[in-house]
Amino acid sequence: MSRSYQYEKRRGIVRVRYYRKADDERYLVLIRQICDERPTYGYRRVTAILNRVLREGGEPGVNHKRVYRIMKIHDLLLQRHTGRPARLHEGTVITLRSNIRWCSDVFEITCWNGERVRVAFSMDCADWMSAPPLITARNPTGWPRPSSRLSSETMSVCMNYLMP
Description:
elongated
């Protein structure tokens, strides 16, 4: 807690969050009219229209920061855009029929003997039917095996892992 805040608290001094100028009430009436006519306009567009109206009447324009302050005090600002979508993706993929959207994955399993088994598969997002997986084995040095066929035992372990 800062020293100045403690001093003000002891003395009973209340800080005003926003200052108010003499012409704020006059501008507030005009700003409310603009916001009522165009509720989707932010403070920048409201400032442009307000300045156009004021200059037509022969008065000087208003700074956009002042318009922002007046709109903020009276809760006339739009909701801030954060760039995030309004709807969060929860993991469900909607497709109208089969064979339109597919998902795929590739992973690798290291066996006890040093061989690495790589598995690639793809699935239809509509009915979750899986295409036959592509399974390849590599020896510890990383080169393909001389025989590209896997043993039936390794193949059954992989298939049980994929489709229990």
